[in-house]
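Chapter review: from sequence to fold.
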Amino acid sequence: NKMVASGRSALSMLLLLLLMLLITVADGMPFARLVQRMSRRPSSTNDGNITNACTYGPHRRRRPPLLSLSFWGYLTSNNNKRRASSSSPSSSSTSTVLSCSSVAEEEENEQHHASQATLEDKPPPEQKKLGESVHLQLDSEAMTTKVVVTEGDDGSEKELKQPIRKRKKTILLSYTDPKTKKTYTGLNISRRRFEAWLQYTLPNSFSSSRNRILKKDAISKQELIHILPKVREDLRNKWKARQLLCDRTELLTVYTSDKQQQDDADSSRKELNNSKNKSPKTKKRGGFGDLLQLYADRFHGILLDEQEEGTDILYHLLSKEYGVEETKLLSAASFQQQGPKEQVRILKHFLEWFRAKFPYYYDRCDACGASYKDEPPPAVVINNDMQDGAVPADEEQRILTNQEEGTFLGYVFPSELELQGKAGRTELYQCHKCHHYTRFPRFNKAHTVWDTQRGRCGEYSMLLYRMLRSVGHIQTARWIVDWADHVWAEIWLNDNKGWVHLDPCEAAVDQPLLYQEWGKQQTYIVGFSTSSPTIQDLTTNYTSEDMEAIEKRRDESPQQFAESIAKTAEKLQTRIANFTATTTT
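The token string follows.
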């Protein structure tokens, strides 16, 4: 009996080992490594990580019993982890820690023991939501791109920029007026917005009913993947003729690279003919160099506007509206004699007054005062069963589009009166309540912005900069441009405090990390001044990130970036050399 019992035990053990061998071979684990795994205890490495088991501390757990289901899940899950980690260059310590964390969670919650997450399976962290601010957050590269780490062919890590939202095609809508035979175009505009603009632009060609819908074949649609220079020039002509409505004016802007591309057209063709396999390298349109030159031209325009108007006008307006004594405290002669704390107090008081007098404009109707942002219309319940009284499919889409787009129709070329205020473009809105049309010209003339008291950061930063210069801060004030769609000013304070951030829209003084709290990933922040240096990179002043993280988001190398700054600054310095500012003593 003892011999039979011993034989049965040996046979059972043999069958058990055979079963283990079949399972491990099916999973790709060598049998010797399995035996080693069963006999080895957790061991700590020099760097504090734990190999082949859970980490010590709050997540340290004993290995499951040999014949339990948890043990088989433990083996197969770790074996799968080893497969996944072998295909990536990640370190063994990282994969081990992840495996141990998964086992600890598995024992605490057995219904999830089969789902073991690897580093690649983890979802990306949610992007921090923008904080509430008066500033209108617009589309920009810093807000619409993300950096993704990928593995190169040689196993090294490479960082690529991926657009979050990027339009692949350019949509053109066209309508020919039967009376005037003129063709009106919508650039990347929906049909609803285009029809509303046509009714505004051609009131005599449409019925008085604001709900009139054109026939489907009355408006033609064209999709373009590439915008040729000839098409771009035609769009610019329509823009100046006030026959174009667009959602953005970037396609119409004349950049430095556009002029250079036209000058180098012949040489490019020669290079293409000489090397059929290689296409000539062209400078990226709308890149850093183009935008930097554009903002430098804008800064020079601010100085020319000051030269035309003089500083006396703004100084007297400040004395009348802000107060004589308050204006004297703000003047450079008195301001520089104050201590840093008193200077900050004076600036905060001034910006609070500024924000109250010059409110941030969104879309308020000139007729009834309604605002889509403050009072959005209620959600529309649509009957999809198409029974009696149901909304037709095309009208359903029209209502949904109306809800999504709000009151903004697009940008149009300024009127003759608006051009007197040096408006570069005009935003057109249609009220969602009374259907009245409201125009919002983007003025570049300081006196006009003061009179209308309507603007955003572009108008108000320019006005603030002009005000500071009007009270004597000629060399101690500068204009700041953030490529992530914001503009503000800076002023120099005493006792080595240096340049201090001034945001007129937020009434913020010395809060450089404010925009990072909004969720912005700063890429380019540049200061413009009449003193040397006329152009300076200030990006690191407005973010807690180091320069290495900032450069990863930039399209240019550090050398190209520095060359663009130096080249544009040299041109601006030459233009400022002949500029003489008039100040109030």
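Two observations follow directly from the output. The two ends are 119 Å apart (CA to CA). The chain has a mean pLDDT of 75.
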